[in-house]
Every structure is written in C-alpha cells, then in structure tokens.
Amino acid sequence: MARLSSHHNGNSNTILFVFPFLVLLQTHFVSATSESNIVKFLPGFQGPLPFLLETGYIEVSETEADENAEVFYYFIESENNPKQDPLLLWLTGGPGCSAFSGLVFEIGPLTFINDEYNGSLPNLALRSLSWTKVSNIIFLDLPAGTGFSYPKTETAVQQSTWKLAHNAHQFLRKWLIDHPKFLSNEVYIAGDSYSGIPIPIIVQEISYGNDDGLQPWINLQGYILGNPLTTPKNDDYQIPFNHGMALISDELYQSLKKNCRGEYKHIDPQNVFCLKDFQSYTETISGVCIPHILEPKCETDFVDTIEIPRRTLLIDKTDHTIFSSSLTMPPLNCRTHAYFLSPYWANDDNVRKALHIRKESIGKWKRCNADIPYKHETLDSFPYHANLSKKGFRSLIYSGDHDMKVPFLATQAWIRSLNYSIVDDWRPWYYNDQVAGYTRTYSNRMTFATVKGGGHTAPEYKPEECLAMFNRWISNNSL
What is the pTM of this model? Predict the structure, then answer.
C-alpha cells in the first residue's frame, strides 16, 4: 500500500504519495555491464568516440512478481574525474521525448551536423560544450514506450506520472548496484519542460527510500530543472509574458485582464467578451514560435500532450505543434530541421546494432512519442518542491527568458510561493564579461537563474552560458 503524508501549504492539505517499492536483491546482483555494453564507434561519427559511452537496458516493474518493462539508457562518463564528479540522471520532457534528444540537442557531447537531408545517414559531430565535461550523466528513456524503452506486458503499456517516477527510482538503485564504483558519487536528478512534474516526485521517492533503508543508499544531493512545468497556473502567466515582450498591445492586455479576470485556462463559454479578447490574442501570436519567441516558427515533430487539453476552446488551426500525419521536413534555417534528422539516424540498422538495441523490441523510433497511453495523475509538483525544501536538498531552477511555453514569470511565481527568504538578491550573472542572465538564491538552497536569450530548452540555445552556469552551481560556487 502507498504511504501518504500530509503537506501543509497555507490552509490547504496536499497529499503526497509515496510508492511501494520493489524490494531489491540484497544478495549479489549479477552485473549486466561488460565490454559488450560499451559503444566505441557510432555510424555517422568519424573515428572512435573520445568519451566513454555505455548503453543498455534495465528491467523495472510495478510489483515484485512482475518485471514488465525494459528501460533504455545512455551513460556517458565524465571527461574530468568520473570517480569524484557528480552523477546526473537526465529525463527529457514530453512526456514521451527520448533522452537522446537531451543528449544531442541540449547537454551531451554529440550533435547532428545540420545538413540538408539527402537520403544518406545523418552525420554526428563532437560538441565541446557538454555537461559531461564536469559530470557523469545517465540519459534515461522514460516512460516505457519512449525512445528505445519498451513495455513487456499489457499493464506496462499504460503509463502515468506515478509509474514514471516509480520506475526512475527503481532504475537508479538497480543501475548503481550494477555500477558500484559510482555508489559514493553525489547524485542529482535533472531535466526540463514536462520533467518539472515527475522529477520532484522522483527526488522525494529516492529520499524516502534512503530513509527506509533501501539499498543501495543513494548519495542524493538535489535536482536541476530547466523551464519546468510546475503548476496549472503556468497558463495565467503567458499573456503577461507576451505583453511584456511587446507581442500584444496594452489595450488588448488590459481588456483581457478585465474581461477574463486573469484566468485564461478555463474560460467560461458564456463570457463572450473574454472569448472575443482571447480570440484576438491567439490570432495576434499565431505566427510566433512558442519555445523561443525570436526564432522562426517552423513545423516540429511533436504534439504537446500537456498543451492540447488546455486549448479546449480555441486551438489555432495553423499551429504546427499539433501533430500531423503529413509532416514535412522544415527548411534548413529552422532549428527543428535537426529534430527530423534524428529518426533517420536512430532507425538505421547499423546504428541500432552499435547501440545494442534488441531486435524487434520497438518499431519505429521517434524523438518524441505522443502515442504512449499516459495518465496525467498530477499537473502540480509544487507540494513536492515544498517538501524537498524542508529536507534541505539543493536545487537549480533555470529559465530561458524567451520561452513562451513555460515563461520565467510562471517559474518565479511558484518559487515566491515557497515563502523562503532571499539570501543572495536579484543580480546579473556573467559569462565572458557579459551579462548571461539574472539570478537569486533562497534560504532553502534553491537557486533561480534566467538565461538571457534562451528558449524553452535553454542549453540548446545558449550552450556556453548554460555549461558555465551548471559548472559553477554543481561546484558549489556562486553563479
């Protein structure tokens, strides 16, 4: 049975669920890791890989009796000091986006050479601005059905917030048993976008597991989140953000505030004045790129399963984030062009062989799989942040300041609601003697930072600045 604990936030009580956890083997765990798991060469990359890459699967389950899903991971050792550098577990958002996306488009040591696709295998290049310069990183495909992870039973096909968190927790303990040399490394759970919902739950699960004596003990220190979805109130900050960015007029903004009364998620169908204003608003921003308002608006390869239910009243029919079966590759000047290269690469038989993918384990690989049956059991991770703050974990919350999807205003608002005092007030942080963003630190050991010019996945847009930010924070230095 799940354990429940009451969390008090003002006058409300929020129930925090704690999963029952599979009793891990206390006897010798037979290691699946060997030289056969190491990837020394990758199709599309010239020469041997100049870093240690390991790939593999670990079984996860809902019950002790039923091992029902195989989750796939990419592990890259730190290029600095693997024995002493921290260990990050990285989840890409979605839900349903492969951690490979985080590896090649955000924080890993590889990237696609963004050439026009000509039918041949896309090429990879080395990225020097990788977070693996100072940390070990496990890039994990979760939930099952994401990337190369796959369900083995009927029950494992259906995924959910709780199952994702439970499986991540279970995976990490099993992985550490399998990799004992990392047992003493500091551990951080990291990710961005939708990962802002499950990651605080995962951190709490690991913490409770440690408290309950689960083995192996995990040296959990904190978590890192970029432009994280956190509360349902996120939508209420998109209109103020767009007004502040000069995307909508003063008059429309004032009218929206008056007629919609600051509530834009669930508009009363009888409120004709609000509906009219909101229609004008959606038309005004219809040509703007939501993940980064300065970038060209281009077709992408993913339907945002979080955003669509929110747009029950007015869905912009020209919004190409809505999935289409007739997707066409965007032009080369679009950032999303490289997204379309990734399935051509990952679905190549030689690539799958190099990555040790089990034959017939999955069908077509997708960078983001919107077809996973997924139950959103919560869209509010704020209570978990509050609980983790009480337990003293470090956290770095960063926001690319040109992201409309999860605007920095929304993130600042829930951080303020934690009600912790400021220990290092709002100030610029620098990279190469230039302002790279602004930061503030709180007494709950939470650091908030903006990344100037960054979008929804900030390291994708500002890799140099984000590596500097991460390196300083992970080293316990001031930004």
Answer: 0.90
In single-letter form, the type of residue at position 296 comes to: P
User: pLDDT band at 35, cuts 50/70/90?
Assistant: low
Highest-pLDDT range among 148-152, 154-158, 324-328: 148-152
Q: Check whether residue 247 and residue 216 sit in a common domain.
A: no
Q: Does some domain include residue 146?
A: yes
| CB of 204 closer than 8 Å to CB of 384 | yes
At 84, list the tokens. 């002493």
Instruction: Let me know if residue 112 belongs to a domain.
Output: yes
Is residue 361 included in any domain, yes or no?
no
Count of domains for the chain: 2
Instruction: Output DSSP code: residue 107.
Output: I
Average pLDDT rounded to a whole number, residues 26-55:
78
For the packed helices 272-285 and 250-260, what is the interaxial angle rounded to 10 degrees?
A: 140
Counting Cβ atoms within 10 Å, is residue 417 exposed (0-12), middle (13-18) or buried (19+)? middle
Q: CA-to-CA distance for 297 and 143, rounded, in angstroms? A: 29
Same domain for 267 and 223: no
Dihedral, CA of residue 460, residue 47, residue 133 and residue 144, to nearest 10: 60
DSSP 271-325: -HHHHHHHHHHHHHHTTS-SS-TTSPP---S---TTHHHHTSS---TT-TTS--T
CA separation for the pair 69, 458 (Å, rounded): 31
Catalytic machinery residues: 193, 403, 456
Instruction: Return mean pLDDT, the chain.
Output: 88
